[in-house]
Design goal:
The protein is α/β, with parallel strands linked by helices and 369 residues long. It has 12 helices and 19 strands. Helices cover 31% and strands 23% of the residues. The protein has a 9-stranded mixed sheet. It has an 8-stranded parallel sheet with strand order 8-7-6-5-4-3-2-9. Strands 12-13 form a two-stranded antiparallel sheet. It binds pyridoxal-5'-phosphate. Pyridoxal-5'-phosphate binds next to strand 9. Its EC number is 5.1.1.1.
Length: 369
């Protein structure tokens, strides 16, 4: 009998390289490429991915929070790192680690100017975020004067880029909205450049933006999900390779008689004799309760085994009545053959959510061919 192994997220760096090269092939050679590695590189392994992207020739990295950038610096990453959502309480750490803040509000601009001055910085690189319709973070057009005046009066900071973010770049039905966002961004960044008297880089496109609006690539693009092998659209998915495979094993098999139940709250009740397999993966590993009651399934010996009843913290039970399998056999939750996007869709969510949900308890294994 095969040895019991633990639940593992296997990461394929050749797939990452393939995806990087594919995305790069969609933009001009001179356009810079920023790899988004926030949230543990979409639930994979931030340092491993960042190192590989650095080696592949990415120009920039981005994280959401300062603490993520600090981890990258501690691991020796040299690339410039944009912090998309810094908070004023983290500015000293940010500066100490040479991380570059997104400046998204008047408040943040003033507080960063103060921090940069206190730390005796000159020309500290910052990135101006414009809100063009997502209504999440960013300055509006009316703030451009304020930004230009504040930065020109201070020698502490230098605007190295202006950027914005599309709200629905994967949605063809929202094409007019996206084009409108691109138009507003051009207008705002042009006004800013006029007032500053120099031209910072501009960037607006995420993965689906690269595919659908290549004319708006400006000087840089920012890709996350595409690097990890998902394209939000079937024709793009075909070109990409998921880098992560989530696998586990069967720890025990039970014969369940008719009129028995499986798991907490007796959420599954059998009306006939079935065979169940218990797997060492649960909601504490990222498989949320929404995948229970037959919505999510794993693949065992190439066959679908739906989740029976409720997802437990550390386990799921799956239906293997029709599967020839034994304790110790492998179960695949998602991977190149069985996409995380389909798994997520079964529970009404998206690849981004299931990928980033895989908790730190799950062992990461990197295959280097
Ligand atoms: C997360 C994020 C991205 C990456 O988006 P993908 O759809 O994963 O390519 C780009 N820009 C910003 C501002 C983000 O927050």
């Amino acid at each position: 009998m095969s040895k019991v192994g633990e639940t593992t997220l296997v990461l394929d760096l050749e797939a990452l390289e393939h995806n990087y090269n594919y995305l790069r092939s969609k933009i001009k050679p001179e356009t810079k490429f920023l790899g988004v590695v926030k949230a543990f590189a979409y639930g994979s392994d931030m340092v491993t991915i960042a190192k590989k992207l650095e080696q592949l020739g990415a120009d920039y990295l981005a994280v959401a929070y300062v603490s993520e950038g600090v981890l990258l610096r501690e691991a020796g990453i040299q690339l410039p790192i944009l912090v998309l959502h810094p908070l004023a309480s983290n500015f000293d750490d940010l500066i100490a680690n040479h991380l570059e803040p997104s400046i998204y509000s008047k408040n943040i601009l003033e507080q960063f100017l103060e921090a940069a001055k206190a730390q005796k910085q000159t020309d500290y690189p910052v990135h101006i975020k414009f809100n063009t319709g997502l209504n999440r973070l960013g300055f509006s057009e009316a703030d451009v004067n304020f930004i230009a005046e504040e930065t020109m009066h201070s020698k502490c900071i230098k605007i190295v880029s202006a950027f914005s973010h599309l709200a629905a770049s994967e949605d063809k039905n929202e094409r007019d909205f996206s084009l409108n966002q691109i138009g507003s961004f051009k207008k705002m960044s042009n006004t800013l450049m006029d007032k500053l008297g120099y031209a910072p880089m501009r960037h607006m496109l995420n993965t689906s933006g690269i595919i659908n609006y290549p004319e708006a690539q400006f000087e840089m693009v920012r890709s996350g999900i595409g690097l990890y092998g998902y394209g939000n659209q079937a024709h793009v998915d075909k070109e990409l390779q998921p880098i992560a495979t989530l696998k586990t094993i069967i720890s025990q098999i039970h014969q369940i008689d008719a009129n028995e139940s499986v798991g907490y709250n007796r959420a599954f009740k059998s009306d006939q004799a079935i065979k169940s397999a218990t797997l060492p993966i649960g909601h504490a590993d990222g498989i949320g309760r929404q995948y229970g009651k037959g919505k999510g399934f794993v693949t065992i010996n190439n066959k679908k085994a739906p989740i029976l009843g409720n997802v437990c913290m550390d386990m799921i039970m799956v239906d293997v009545t029709k599967i020839d399998c034994k304790e110790g056999d492998e179960a695949i939750v998602f991977g190149p053959q069985k996409s995380a996007e389909n798994f997520a869709a079964a529970a009404n969510t998206i690849s981004y959510e299931i990928l980033t949900a895989i908790s730190q308890r799950v062992k990461r294994e990197v295959i280097k061919k």
